[in-house]
């Protein structure tokens, strides 16, 4: 029991020197990678750079205690940082104490929601984010993030939470471009793209091992940071208008509780819920991918608690919302991390950086950080998924397109809410006209097939309708309409059989519909039968009066139904002839 | 084509003297019943009494032209009138010109929505109102309506849109009760209850035919109206504080377009949408019940157009939202109406009443109208449905209870929205953990059954999981979790077969999950197979790369899978022994 809620107890017991060494090496590599990322994502969220470092210390320790993935690396990530900026940007001005307080409160509320969902085992709620919606959302977020960073590359002031606002703001400032900033920004971006695409194959060509080449290539941003910082310091570019990170307070963050302002909490609640769910879905899918490679298991419900604890820890140490990040988790995995201790060691690394390195990043240009963000997020943009989804399913495509368009045009929150709403509606719509077929007997067999597709035996006084979907409120009335239509068209009809081999559920609405069908068919002189009802569905029906009132019978197999009803029919015909 | 959109063309062609006589008799009876109802429901909606009459003329003619039910009687109904009061009450004060204008605009917008839904064949949208939600909503509305009429019985001023407000307002006015009003109100209510419960059996005892007895009993309200009006006039009770209908303008309503105020339309849109859907669901279920009794058909999509035209007609003639009413349609049917012409004749009857009778209702006490409303709506209240639904399905019960409680506490609009939202969420939740079973072979047969329930053959290197639900976004991740769990628990596993006989759909999210499962099982050295995939599902999968990437095979039957995989297994074992 205790081990379930404290996964650290499972791996700490078997911890030894070998795992310690592996974890330490991985932690060192992840630390180097995480420093520029955490600074950059803090700026993306509209926060001072040091807040990114703060969000990369305690949250990692909390996850190491409560998380179930051996290799997930938590911290600030792009999409969640964008969502933070959108949520907090509505309430306070960037740079104010209120803005920081709101971001911290957001992390706290989000952490609380995640822990609560974990305790109530509601990880399942994340399922309402369908894949096309999350994929469309990440693509659109990537585009917005990249666009929002252009201002740092160009060296102008411009902001907005949707694509149009951002582009308009940029457009109006094009005459204020700062040339040295532009040179740094474009060079850094080009360099990082080159590192991402070309460096690894080149290193391998030079005889470096593939894994090492991969890790070196992932450290590209560090090189860009060092080079541009030195250049800015050496050439005093900050005096020529290049914006730099500037003074970052040295020292660890203090611990304090976030603001408990009821108004603020209410305003942030929906945003926190969205951030929680999006962050959880991203994180759990990374964790599952990595766990499967080593045949390990993660527990989604405990992951909620782990991520929740991380966010609470982030809030307590002056940070902002965090979650498991894709690229850094892959680096952690590839670098050989074996337990969550690697995360705790990374936290120590970042803490040392906070104590020692902050004076060194005074001259780090914001343009460089923007370049690292742009290169990272453009890899998230996957417009080809639109084509793939279109080919497979039009309604999934519609949900995806709506998510992308609304996220770009109206912002992240409306985009994801509309996407979720639409995918639910489309699913209900899709099942509201279920596939159904009138079936007849394949001559000489016990099989029954669609009369439109096969040459089968039917009987004009007996009609069998097979429905290939669970019966529930969204399609209950459709079933009624379909049956009344059939009966109205076939005046000789005496028996209607509903064949239910694919009916996994009959809810209360569908039960009412079946009762209405039974009643109305009785009024029209038609008996209503069921066949091939599944065990669990039948158990439910037995609790009601429906079976007592049913004018017909429930047949175990459609063949039984056919034999009983068509024999009665033959007997009647014979009697009539005599 | 023309006949589809103008159903009148179908029946007018075969119209003759016999149908004319039947329709005329039915119309006469319905007219007598409709007069007090339309006055009462106008008061319930917070409107002047004559507006009820106006809403019972042109709308009936419009329905006769565009509707598909032969016997549906449209006009003001209780629940829609309550919803009108709730919607308009937020925007204007009762008794003002703005209030009337808003009610008329509401009918117009609602009519437009219904016509649009009909043209787009979106009758299916009404399906999102599950039966427990609509039944709970009507029960709660009945309670609110009855409570809201108590002020007329007590002769005090008090109002509110939810039960608590109404009861508190009444409570604070108990010292202002008007005794003559109370006497009239209680007597009328008691009389009407007696009529409803006792009169019909008594008349039958006296030798009256059942159908006639039923119709006479349904005319009870008319008797109460006449008696209390005469008493009020004779005893000058209006001078003792009994509130009467008072001066009602004589003459037909003028035709005019409703207000096209964009702000007003925006404020009324959601209310109009809810009224449209609720009205449609009530009406179409009455129409279907009656049509089935004569083996007739109605077309739900054309019904939308018919009801939409009625509401537009109501708006154009100064009325408020209308729909098909249950009790008056049953009376119309029982009285022998054969075509929608009966409705048109009823319209003529009401028009004559508007021209001639209005001076006679000056002394009609509002308490009498309140009594007719109370007796009518209390028959809608069905708390026993709560028990029945609880017995059948806990999640349907939860949706129903939430609808009732929220409607009573927060009002009609929030009640129905929450009910719909909750029933959708609960459905998704219910299918998000689908029933699934590990299956094995029943020895000596080709059948495969749940290993937990049957004594079946299994093989530790081959595992077969049968899932009894369509695979879509709400359960895709659950499937992943379940499979990773199974694989992590069984280290010898080499083959995993997913058996899909009950999978009616695989959406894009589930496809991604299957791809992830395939990939991750490959990483763990397990081949992934499918069996018994349905034709339409397989057709979809063939459009993707999934089948190319699948590490295993797709078997037509589970028996094929068993034979192929366990034979390979045996061969391997034999080879290993040699």
Automatic annotation (TrEMBL), chains A, B:
- Organism, per UniProt? Marinobacterium stanieri
Q: List the Gene3D superfamilies.
A: STAS domain
Q: Which GO terms describe its cellular component?
A: membrane
**TM helices/strands, residue ranges:** 20-39, 45-66, 73-93, 99-120, 132-150, 177-195, 215-235, 268-292, 304-322, 342-362, 369-386, 398-428
Q: Which InterPro entries match?
A: SLC26A/SulP_dom (IPR011547), SLC26A/SulP_fam (IPR001902), STAS_dom (IPR002645), STAS_dom_sf (IPR036513)
Protein's name in the database: Sulfate permease, SulP family
Q: What residues does the STAS domain cover?
A: 452-572
GO biological process terms, alphabetically, are: transmembrane transport
Q: Which NCBIfam families match?
A: sulP
Membrane topology term reads: Multi-pass membrane protein
Reply yes or no: does the keyword Transmembrane apply. yes
Which CDD domains does the entry mention? STAS_SulP_like_sulfate_transporter
Q: Where in the cell is it found?
A: Membrane
Q: Does the keyword Transmembrane apply?
A: yes
Task: Give the source's domain of life in one word.
Answer: Bacteria
Keywords, alphabetical? Membrane, Transmembrane, Transmembrane helix
């Amino acid at each position: 029991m205790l081990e379930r809620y404290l996964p650290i107890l499972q791996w700490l017991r078997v911890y030894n020197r070998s795992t310690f060494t592996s974890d330490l090496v991985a932690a060192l590599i992840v630390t180097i990678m995480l420093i520029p990322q955490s600074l950059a994502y803090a700026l993306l969220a509209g926060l001072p750079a040091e807040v990114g470092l703060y969000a990369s210390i305690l949250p990692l320790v909390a996850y190491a205690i409560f998380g179930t993935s051996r290799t997930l690396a938590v911290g600030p990530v792009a999409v969640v940082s964008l969502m933070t900026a959108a949520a907090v940007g509505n309430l306070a001005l960037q740079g104010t104490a209120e803005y920081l307080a709101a971001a911290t409160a957001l992390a706290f509320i989000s952490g609380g929601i995640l822990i609560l969902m974990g305790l109530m085992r509601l990880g399942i709620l994340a399922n309402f984010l369908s894949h096309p919606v999350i994929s469309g959302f990440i693509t659109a977020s990537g585009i917005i993030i990249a666009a929002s960073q252009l201002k740092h590359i160009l060296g102008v002031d411009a902001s907005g939470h949707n694509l149009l606002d951002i582009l308009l703001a940029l457009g109006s400032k094009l005459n204020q471009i700062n040339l040295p900033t532009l040179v740094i920004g474009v060079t850094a971006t080009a360099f990082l793209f080159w590192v991402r695409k070309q460096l690894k194959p080149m290193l391998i060509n030079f005889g470096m091992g593939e894994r090492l080449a991969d890790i070196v290539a992932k450290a590209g941003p560090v090189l860009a940071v060092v080079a541009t910082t030195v250049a800015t310091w050496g050439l005093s570019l900050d005096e020529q208008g290049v914006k730099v990170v500037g003074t970052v307070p040295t020292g660890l963050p203090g611990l304090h509780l976030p603001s408990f302002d009821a108004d603020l909490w209410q305003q942030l609640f929906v945003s926190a819920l969205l951030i929680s769910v999006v962050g959880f879905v991203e994180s759990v899918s990374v964790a599952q991918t990595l766990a499967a490679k080593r045949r390990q298991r993660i527990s989604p419900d405990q992951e909620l608690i782990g991520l929740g604890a991380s966010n609470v820890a982030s809030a307590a140490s002056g940070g902002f919302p965090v979650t498991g990040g894709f690229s850094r988790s892959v680096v952690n995995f590839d670098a050989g991390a074996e337990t969550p201790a690697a995360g705790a060691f990374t936290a120590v690394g970042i803490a040392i950086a906070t104590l020692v390195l902050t004076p060194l990043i005074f001259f780090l240009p914001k343009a460089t950080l923007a370049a690292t963000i742009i290169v990272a997020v453009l890899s998230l943009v996957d417009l080809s998924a639109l084509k793939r989804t279109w080919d497979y399913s039009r309604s999934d495509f519609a949900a995806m397109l709506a998510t992308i368009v609304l996220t770009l045009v109206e912002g992240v929150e409306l985009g994801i809410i509309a996407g979720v709403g639409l995918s639910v509606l489309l699913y209900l719509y899709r099942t509201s006209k279920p596939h159904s077929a009138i079936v007849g007997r394949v001559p000489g067999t016990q099989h029954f097939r669609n009369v439109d597709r096969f040459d089968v035996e039917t009987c004009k006084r007996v009609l069998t309708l097979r429905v290939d979907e669970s019966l529930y409120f969204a399609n209950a009335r459709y079933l009624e309409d379909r049956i009344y239509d059939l009966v109205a068209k076939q005046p000789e009809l005496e028996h209607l059989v509903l064949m239910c081999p694919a009916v996994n559920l009959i809810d209360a609405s569908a039960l009412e519909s079946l009762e209405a069908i039974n009643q109305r068919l009785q009024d029209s002189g038609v008996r209503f039968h069921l066949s091939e009802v599944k065990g669990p569905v039948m158990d439910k029906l037995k609790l009601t009066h429906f079976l007592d009132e049913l004018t017909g019978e429930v047949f175990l197999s459609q063949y039984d139904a056919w034999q009983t009803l068509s024999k009665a029919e033959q007997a009647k015909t014979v009697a009539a002839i005599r």
